[in-house]
């Protein structure tokens, strides 16, 4: 887990865009 909220948001958005992980988990 990344403590940086920005990194977490980018991670979530990245997977969300791919449609693999909508929740960014």
Explain what the structure shows:
- With 25 residues, this protein is mostly helical.
- Helices cover 56% and strands 0% of the residues.
- The protein is built from one helix and no strands.
- It has one helix spanning 5-18.
- It is elongated.
- The N and C termini lie close together (10 Å).
- The mean pLDDT is 56.
- GO terms for molecular function: kinase activity.
- Keywords: Kinase, Transferase.
- This is TNNI3 interacting kinase.
Please supply descriptive tags for the structure shown above.
single chain; 25 residues; mainly alpha; 1 helix; transferase; TNNI3 interacting kinase; kinase activity; kinase
């Amino acid at each position: 887990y990344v403590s940086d909220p920005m990194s977490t948001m980018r991670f979530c958005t990245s997977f969300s865009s791919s449609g693999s992980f909508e929740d960014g988990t």
